[in-house]
Amino acid sequence: MDQLQAIRAFARVVEAGNFTRAADSLEMPNATLSKLVQELEAHLGVRLLQRTTRRVTVTPEGRDYYDKTARILRDLEDIDTSFNSVRSHPRGQLRIDVGGSTASDVLIPALPEFMARYPDIRIDLGVSDRPVDLISDNVDCVIRGGPLDNSSLIARQIGAATLLTCATPAYLKAFGTPAYPDELKNGHRLVSYLSPQTGRAFPLRFERDGEKCEIKVDHRIGVNESNAHLAAGLAGLGIIQTFSYALESALKSGALVEILRPWRPAPYPFHVVYPQNRHVTHRLRVFIDWLLESFPKNVNR
């Protein structure tokens, strides 16, 4: 038995919550992973995991073993990283999750420079507005906008985007151009952005001279993905409120027109987020540093 490989396999099962996801993240057959854990249990003479057809539960002994060996795995990675960073460029795989419009309008256009700077880093980019579990999904970091409420994560702000309220010229010709946020309640059609987590519509936010307000009205259509949300606005389905970087092309071409400009809300913060109990690899560290350096400044317009 390769004890180190078995320990890593066991740790991934604990973090992923089941054998299938753990095997996928380690790129090994499920049967191989299961055999490694069984061999480790036989070597230790204790049951580490309680298996049923539906779930995997960590035993008290398994939890204690995981806590102790996790420190060893982190120390080993620290040692490897210290040598690798001296003799070579950072290398290996980075799993990053990012929202749809942030990926297409901000991150992906900037990535060629990062890939040229660090040619030995391979990136797996998950693009979705749905929140991921960084531990169980084995994701190194996520890039997200908005306030953060998970204290088990480390977040570093990398930028901020302005929320703009827009509609097509044809829509404004048909329904009129509102001068105040409250006018949106009087017969206007809204395209709401729906929370991918709860399915609830986010209210439209406005602010002027310290006065803040939120508009919550029944929407004509709701969309839970940022690129599709923009597409609905471009199709003339109603008024949308979204990030300035996603609207840049449409505003320049005249496909969309900004309304309620004096009521733009305060900039919306963007963060790179990663688990606080996971070792920050050299490749993740250089990616975060690059984000802080290169996240487009025009995202703040």
From TrEMBL:
Molecular functions per Gene Ontology: DNA-binding transcription factor activity; sequence-specific DNA binding
Organism listed in the record: Kosakonia radicincitans
Keywords noted in UniProt: DNA-binding, Transcription, Transcription regulation
InterPro entries for the chain: LysR-type_TF_proteobact-type, LysR_HTH_N, LysR_subst-bd, WH-like_DNA-bd_sf, WH_DNA-bd_sf
Domain HTH lysR-type: 1-59
One GO biological process term: DNA-templated transcription
PANTHER family the UniProt entry points to: HTH-TYPE TRANSCRIPTIONAL REGULATOR, LYSR FAMILY TRANSCRIPTIONAL REGULATOR
The protein's name: DNA-binding transcriptional regulator, LysR family
Signal peptide (UniProt feature, chain positions): none
Family assignment from sequence similarity: Belongs to the LysR transcriptional regulatory family.
